[in-house]
Predict the structure.
Amino acid sequence: MLVAGAAGVVLLGWFWLRQRRLADPVIDVRLFARRAFSASILTNLLAIFAMSAMMLMFSWYLQLVLGWSPLPAGLAQLPGGLSGAVGGVLAARLIPLPGRNGVVALGLAMNAGAFLYYTTLGTELTYLTLVPAMVIGGIGIGFAFTVNNDNVLATAPRERAGAAAAVSETAFELGGALGIAVLGTVLTGAYRSNLELPAGVRGEAARESLASALTVAEGLPAGQAAGLVRAAQSAFLDGMHLASYVTAGMLAAVALLALVGLRGVPKVIPEEMPAAARS
């Protein structure tokens, strides 16, 4: 794994250097020399990182811990998505007050607060207590995405708008994949570390995941099955809380980055921005 990681870093560096020398690169990495552009791309990437992780964790939590069926578990996440649309509408009206950097930072901070709330979730849930956190987080994502989609194009040269849009789309795809991979790994690692199998229960299958533990429990006597389910759900919640803390801290740090990195982007973006504002 270490060898593969090192090889990946070397190849990425080679790709970066090669793209800088090409007249028509696959990815115009020279755009990243612009502070505001880089900050816009990074905040977009990490916002989708958080959103993808949230959807993954909630799907597992609602179905495997609370025992909900797939349809109610999916519908339960609607407030987050709908509030994201509301945040997109409100974002433009807020820009004149704190500026573009302020709106993006506020959105990321709101999402960080929502993830802090998720660290309190347990094996029992009153759904109405979860909705406000989902709404706050969704509106925050709407703020960040809506403003940054404009920022990406506004902070790049007009003749490179296509390349800037391509980089932005790549960042969305990469952020979603990384969110599931990284925080899914954090959650699974914490689950395996914290799972304590009840006396008399053997087998590594239960350590693979909460879903595997529930499958193993189906073949056990009632007493052992109940003990394994409780232990597995508790270990999963430990992992979910850790992943939520990690995400909240990351989003808070990126909120500060956005506040500084997007400073200087005008509140009203003209068709042709001066070069100084794009740097």
User: Anything to note?
Assistant: Residues 18 and 178 are 24 Å apart (CA to CA). The radius of gyration is 22 Å.
